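Troubleshooting log. The previous structure file for this entry was overwritten by mistake, so regenerating from the original sequence record. Sequence copied from the archived sheet and checked twice against the printout by T.R.
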Amino acid sequence: MKNHRIRAAVLLSGLFLTLSCSKDPDIYVDIDVENQVLIDQINSVSSTVGLQLLRDNSLASIPQDPKNPITQAKIDLGKLLFHETGLALDPKQSEGMGTYSCASCHQSKAGFQSGMKQGIGEGGSGFGLFGEARIMDSNYDEALIDVQPIRSPTILNTAFQDVMLWNGQFGGTKTNAGTEAEWTAGTPKATNNLGFEGVETQAIAGSDVHRLKFDPEMIQNNATYKKLFDEAYPNIQETERYTKLYGALAIAAYERTVVASEAPFQKWLHGENDAMNELEKKGALLFFGKGKCYTCHSGPGLNGMEFHALGMNDLSGDDIHGIVDEGTKKGRGGFTKNPDDDYKFKTPTLYNLKDVKFLGHGGSFTSVKEVIEYKNKAVAENSDVPSNRLSNQFTALGLTTEEIDQLVAFVEDGLHDNNLDRYVPESLPTGQCFPNADAASKSDMGCD
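Regenerated output below.
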């Protein structure tokens, strides 16, 4: 920053306090000082450059699996396959054929999460505006519906994680080293044995879990898809090229590029001094200061790679389909079988949270403010979580009502990318509706 100017009276009063509260028209404060205070605070606990989702606005700065290098050809293919309802070829009921996609539970308008407390793939009906109106299809046997026992995590900023899902069970490297005994044969977790990182592993395993099928004949008979597969994998034998593995790896490559790089905070990190307003900057100061949010929410995605027990409720209520099993309730411990991991869940990204009405792994919070107030008080809401299992970082913050509002402004608005539709295709090579293609969804979306 250049030309930092401020009068002695302002300095004596405290830089940021005076900047924010003074109404004396005779006091001049250069906007560069406001930004420098925040820069200094961030750099004292983190790094402004290290928090950039796209350094130098280059895809090359996005972490990638060495076994699945990102190429533009893969990204282009994966973008379509992620939204392709034409892959819904393995439903439990015939009515579900061609009606769902990966995006059924990860819509751009919901911050690439589900618009509902429980994501519904096959067996869902309707969409609404951002997936909030999706319900269980009355024509379905409830036991056959693909409904999630935990909040559908976002794919946004997942390139900055090496394991996936709330319990981190997908990923055959790094964080999951030492968990090999739990990669049970005949289960989705066995996909870890392929040696890919979490994004790739989930894409491969999720294809089967969520009843999607890459039909080589269908792909080769579609001129667009055949061309895209050929461009993405020119060195793979044609007998292997149009299969689940390579389709899933293209989806993973695409998912890694889905980052909230146009959020005001990201623009500010790249030098746009006025990208955030005064309230959002105050909130950022709290985030990287008194609120100590950065201790868990770190790195470019503000997600971190640790697991914490915060005593939040699991999915519950009369509107919940199915029963949440004990393994799911125990989070990381349900996967590792290590009691020390019980009730711990992976730290989520904080970008685009105001796009959804349900937050927390069990959707027990309806707003960012509720979550911040919960963490500020640090009183567990889930009586099933023993107090000795709670994270030692789950402690009262001492934030005032005004400070909570400032922090909410930073998280809700400063971290909100309002242009996620750039990651959504205009149409699909199959001509099908998406992200859902059931009759009710088509009506909601005006898709013929």
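The radius of gyration is 23 Å. Archived copy saved in two places this time.
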